[in-house]
Amino acid sequence: MSVHVGQFAEAAVRVERLTRTYGTGPQAVTALAGVDVTFHPGTFTAVMGPSGSGKSTLLQTAAGLDRATSGRVWVGATELTGLSETRLTKLRRDQIGFVFQAFNLVAALTVEENIVLPLRLSGARPDHAWLNHVIDRVGLRERLHHRPSALSGGQQQRVAIARALATRPEVIFCDEPTGALDTETAADVLTLLRAVVDEHRQTVVMVTHDPVAASYADRVLVLADGRIVRDLPQPGVDRIAEQLASLGRRRAVAA
Amino acid sequence: MTGLAWKMLRHRPGSALATLVALAAGVMILMAMGALVESGLRHRPPAPVRYAAADVVVAHRDITVSVKEFDGSVTRSSVRLPEGGTVPAELVDRIRALPGVATAAADDPVPVLLPAASTALTGHGWSSAALAPYRTVAGGAPTGDSQLAADRRLGLAPGQDVELLVAGTARTYRVSGVVDGPVAAVFFTDAHAATLSAHPGRVAAVGVVAAPGTDVAALAAAVRTVAGDAGATVYTGADRSTAENSAGSAAEEGARDLLIQAGGAFGGYVVLLIVFVVAATVGLSVRHRRRDLALLRAVAATPAQVRRMIMAEALLVGLAAVAVGGPAGILATRWVRDQLVGRGFVPAAFPVSQGQLAPVAAAAVITLVAVLSALIAARRVTAIRPVEALGEVAVEPPRSGTVRLVCGLAALAGAVSSGSFTLGAGGQAALAGAIGMLYLFVTAVGLLAPWINRTAATVLAPVLRTVWGTSGYLATANLRANARGMAVVLTALVLSVGLGGSVWFLQDNLERQTLAQSRDGLLAEHALLSPAGLPPGAVEEARRTPGVRAATAVRRTAVVVKFLDGAETVGAQAVDATDLAATMDLRVREGDLADLAAGTVAASSIRASTHGWDVGDRVEFWLGDGTPVQLTLVAIYDRGLGFGDITLTRDTVAGHTARDLDDEVLIRADGPADLAALAARHPGSTLVGTGGLTRRLADDLAVSAWLNKLLVGVMVGYAALAAANTMVIAALARRRELAVLRLAGVTRGQARRMVHAEQAGLLGVAVLLGAAIALATLAMVVNSATGEPVPYVPPLGWVTVVGGTALLALFTTVLPIGRLLRVPPIEHMGVKE
């Protein structure tokens, strides 16, 4: 099943000379120092890098959660620069899915209500066939009427993935989706993300610091000091770990 | 949105319940308060009884004072005459000459006591019987000074002899006839009634019955032209009852004024308080959910949607509060009404009921304030960057609040300057200034609360560390970090303690001072009292009684004094000055009471300083019947609370009071005197020790203080409720923080001690500030009202303030946190917040 058709299908998300600076004056911290990258539809990209390298900032600015200091961002055919907060929200609601490390779900709502929340807020009529498919795919049929507090961490992340898929977005952004999970549950969640890309030609951009998690991706970007320092097609767990380690060593020497 | 809002509410029942309680209590208070004021405003004078048959009534019941304002406009305010004014008796003849007048009759009631039944009645001239009307059912009109016609309720028959106490003197009359009318009364001949009058040549009212077919409005206008020069007012229709001046209509009017005044004096503050509490509670409940709201924003909700959801929540809670608070308000209104009737503030016949306006207004105010404050809180929340949802902790960004700081400092400056103004001013102005100062101080504390909390945390750090060790150190850090969140608690507690302490204890001080003044100032040992009144000769009789050294007749009256842009009624005593120095000691500060004679007056120091009167000044005011007088001030005394603010001679007020009778005769005896015989000669009188006189005064004062205490109690209770709410919500939101601390190695005991230290710091500062404000206000007010420099605070008062605060801390923070601490910390660390 193809989600995207036409000429815009070539880039799900594109950023150009993206910079993001926090604070002003001498205390200013540069999180992104000019990043150019394109995420193609139907790909699974892992964004890696040491703490403070700007990987989360890249994800947040690319997803319209945070505004860039300069540079441009496109999601599908829409340019985010200059969009109002409401337009941005609508864009996120319709074209972007999110999976965070934790606190993904509204505790007051049941699993089912959480999954359809974006649809409900946009006032769109849910596509029941698709929703059923998603719910079966993430394996939550039995728990639809539970509240998030009754679910395990892995199950909560599956709910978050289901919610991200519910609107059939252009791209799903994940910020350390397995950060709070044990190895086995993490593998489960990553397999699900992989399947989403393979089966539905979804685009997934995932920030992680775990080489094993990154090994599920098609492409690994490594950031350091706000810049992309490596852009590798899936290199395998060992290569990734090696790259990260070398980055760490170089820093140690430099310091 | 409403569905989502409802689910959000259900998920946080504690917070929703806290808001609901605050809102429902607000609805209840506003409804009860509104019902009282509305009943007062809606009250129409009762249908005329005594003058029901008269189409037009001429009387003089109030005086209107007009004051030119700075801007040239004229403010008029009208004061009901305490003794009921009079009109010239010759007005009757002039009115009778007008075309269209069938009957014109003067009426001048005299108090009559039927000793056999000890029934208090009024006696009238026979011609006024037509104004009710009273119809003859047996016998006929009285024809001589010793005859009367009696209402059939008295059970008398024509030809029967009856002994009456008329104008304080026992007399025997023969019943000439029996009449049937609206209330029990007796009728003398017009000539005899005139001789009994307390104000010869003047009458209480003139009633006019129009000839059939006469236009009443035209007649009234004609009467007005005649009566106008006499300073009298013309009443027609329902207003006629105002002119009746009967005990019933006076009581109803008093009740009406009381309800409106109570509403006017406290209503504004109650509404402000409720608005403050509701806004704070709703705002807090929104702030505590930053993370949820940030998540909503991140995944799907536009800022407008989040705002709508929060407002829908507030609306739901508001409607629920109306549903709960409405019935509670009806019950509260009923309870307050019963209490007011039971304590004699309001006659039982006075309709106090839930009108339509008060409940609707209360519901609308509460719902509107809830929704608006939700909107304001929501606007702040929609500024949340959705990125916050990703973060570990959703901390509130520190806000500078320059506007708040500036406003707070301005209020503080205002409070201090009004304090210095109050110190300089005297009397009533000082009182008003002190109350203004109280509110400015509380406002300043409310605005400056975050800074006060932060400063207090810094200042208290060494103390808390010394007492509680590590826990104290943590407590200091928390106090500093939560300075803003706890602003509501500080404000509410300062308000409770400041307002409660000053207004409540002011009542105690006034009562205490009044009693002390009355006790210390009464040199006489005995008092002959008579509700029916004692004839002016009674005091002479007392003096002639062997063993009596001195006796003073006292007549309680009131005068009307111009004050600010209106006029107010001031309690006065009219005495015969002969033995004054031997029976009462007013503690004269300036001048000499020996100079008190006809044409002179003495005033209390508070009154004198209010109006800037000095000994030797010619002072102007109106006597109780509206007669303007200009008297020379001969003395200024301190014991105004115990004896009345104005002291005149009986001669000065003679003819200007409703009855020419004394209320009490103070008697000082050297040894055993046969006073019982004196009392026996005056039916209806009782002999009491002056201690008993003081006790009666105490009972009266306790009753009149009750309403003030009730209103203040409600405000204090509500402010405490607001503090409690905030503290419970804040305590329950600390789950995760406490878990983090315990995982970091803080033991359960240390965590508990930390909470104790925090509470001691926060509440200690609140109580100290509140008490300081209360004491400052109290000292100023007490000083201006009683002349005592040091206010009295009952020991129980201190216990209540400190104990109440401790209980508040225990139930709203210590116990809930104790429960949180019993759960293993790791359970609170999970994804659930």
Topology overview:
The complex is a heterodimer of chains A (255) and B (833).
Chain A (H helix, E strand, L loop, with lengths): L12 E10 L6 E11 L4 E5 L6 H8 L7 E6 L2 E2 L5 H11 E4 L11 H12 L5 H11 L14 H14 L4 E5 L7 H18 L3 E4 L3 H4 L4 E6 L2 E7 L3 H18 L1
Chain B lengths: L1 H10 L1 H30 L13 E4 L2 E7 L5 E7 L6 E2 L2 H6 L4 E7 L2 E5 L4 E7 L9 E5 L7 E5 L9 E6 L2 E12 L5 E3 L1 H7 L5 E2 L1 E6 L5 H13 L4 E4 L3 H5 L2 H41 L2 H10 L3 H40 L14 H26 L19 H23 L2 H42 L1 H12 L5 H35 L4 E9 L3 H7 L3 E16 L2 E10 L4 H4 L4 E4 L8 E5 H7 L6 E5 L5 E10 L2 H4 L2 E4 H4 L8 E8 L5 H7 L4 E4 H43 L2 H9 L4 H39 L8 H28 L3 H4 L4
Parallel strand pairs in B: 7-12, 9-11, 18-23, 20-22
Antiparallel strand pairs in B: 1-14, 1-15, 2-3, 4-13, 5-14, 6-7, 6-10, 8-11, 9-12, 10-11, 16-24, 16-25, 17-18, 17-24, 19-22, 20-23, 21-22
Question: Could you provide a short overview of the structure?
Answer:
Chain A has 255 residues and is of the alpha/beta class. Helices cover 38% and strands 24% of the residues of chain A. With 833 residues, chain B is an alpha+beta fold.
What this model shows, in words?
The complex is a heterodimer of chains A (255) and B (833). Chain A is built from eight helices and ten strands. Chain A is globular, with a radius of gyration of 18 Å. With 255 residues, chain A is an alpha/beta fold. Chain A has helices at residues 55-62, 85-95, 111-122, 128-138, 153-166, 183-200, 211-214, 237-254; strands at 13-22, 29-39, 44-48, 70-75, 78-79, 96-99, 171-175, 204-207, 219-224, 227-233. In chain A, helix 6 (183-200) links the parallel strand 7 and strand 8 (204-207). Mean pLDDT of chain A is 82; it is low at 1-9. In chain A, the strands form two sheets. In chain A, strands 6-7-8-3-9-10 form a six-stranded mixed beta sheet, sandwiched between helices. Chain A has a four-stranded antiparallel beta sheet with strand order 2-1-4-5, with helices on one face. In chain B, helix 12 packs across helix 13 (470-481). The radius of gyration of chain B is 33 Å and the shape is elongated. The interface between A and B is medium-sized, with 34 and 28 residues.
